[in-house]
Design a protein that fits this description.
The chain is α/β, with parallel strands linked by helices and 237 residues long. Helices cover 41% and strands 13% of the residues. It contains 9 helices and 7 strands, in the order αααααααββααβββββ. The protein has a 5-stranded mixed beta sheet with strand order 3-4-5-6-7, with helices on one face. Strands 1-2 form a two-stranded antiparallel ribbon. The longest helix has 21 residues, at 51-71. The radius of gyration is 18 Å and the shape is globular. This is DUF4143 domain-containing protein.
Amino acid sequence: MNFFHGYDIEVYSLQQIINNEFKLDQIKHPLPLFKDYLKRGYYPFGVENEIDLRLGQIIVQTLETDIPQYANLNVGTSRKIKRLLKIIAESVPFKPNFTKIAEIINVSRNSLDDYFLYMEHAGLIGQLRNETNGIRGLGKIEKVYLDNTNIIYNLVGNRSNIGNIRETFFFNQMRVNNEVISSKTADFVIDNYTFEIGGSNKQQKQIEKEGKSFVVKDDIEFGYLNIIPLWAFGLNY
């Protein structure tokens, strides 16, 4: 907000956000700015007119040059990683079957784990794991997301799935300061709080048996009780 629009926005803790204690005194209607952020606001060069071209070039360079040089991979392997990213981008949501994927791109199961890790470290994807007893980085991978919504729009364009965009935004923003894991009944768990992500008509049924649970809704400007607007989770850092 500050970089793109000149607004001085306060940072809020997760507790403040789920208590609906955040304020945007300078902005009456945050949704148009939020929708713009989803398409071009993640990277500083989003202010440029040719963001799609530049982001596309960065993705290609990362796949064809940066990762291969870092991991000492050959050209054939870099092509397989590009194909893997394409599979992730076109699958909504992407719940990895590693054995099947390894067969599709003709690599070993162990190599596939490395490819996912390379892309995660390069800022192309984020891997959502299950309960890990507090040990970050271990555990079964339940879902794989593109790292941020700008990459989704760049790779998929108008075919972007709105549900995937919402979940990607939440995961991208919250994993900066929090350990985010998968939920058996909803979408995400953070510090024993359960979060279900959806549109403005999303109901409570899926999480009604969870103690500390919240419905995170897109397309609403303000929250109430355990209903929190999706855009508010962008105020955590």
